[in-house]
Design a protein that fits this description.
Number of domains: 2
Radius of gyration: 20 Å
CATH topology of the largest domain: Alpha-Beta Plaits
Strand order of the largest sheet: 2-3-1-4
Distance between the termini: 14 Å
CATH superfamily of the largest domain: Lrp/AsnC effector binding domain/regulation of amino acid metabolism (RAM) domain
Number of helices: 6
Number of strands: 4
Shape: elongated
Strand content: 15-25%
Helix content: 25-40%
CATH class of the largest domain: Alpha Beta
Order of helices and strands: HHHEHEEHEH
Amino acid sequence: MIDSVDHSILTILQEDGRISNAEIARRIGMAPSGVLERLRKLEERGIVKGYQPRLDAKALGLGVLAFVFVKTDEVSGEEKTAKLLAAMPEVQEVHHLAGEDCYLAKVRAPDTEALGRLLREKVGAISSVRSTRTTIVLGTAKASMALPLGPESRTPKTEEANR
């Protein structure tokens, strides 16, 4: 169960993943050792999965963002294609879908020419891939990894316990 203290810690961490335990403790009125213990428990429970910097894709020469819908010949429940897509460095996310397409991959490339090569030489080379449909992003209004942690937010275990 996530209590109000955990909620506060998670909210602060989502704003700044590099913040020190001492600063979190100061903001919420706790001892740094207490914050450290709570963070360890949140990590052990898999609520906090890691800490990564947010890099500027354009500044790193990866100015093209695209979403690739992938249809496969896989039998339901197989994940071979998902694993092969996920292994490509250009692929940031792979999602298994319900509906017409099997997977949705979020990819980054330097330019449309490189995106075309990726689709032909890597994605198209996967034997189970039947077809792809690509949407190129022209602009982004919001991109965030932060999760909504309002007072109504609960972990799945808490929701099950309240049923």
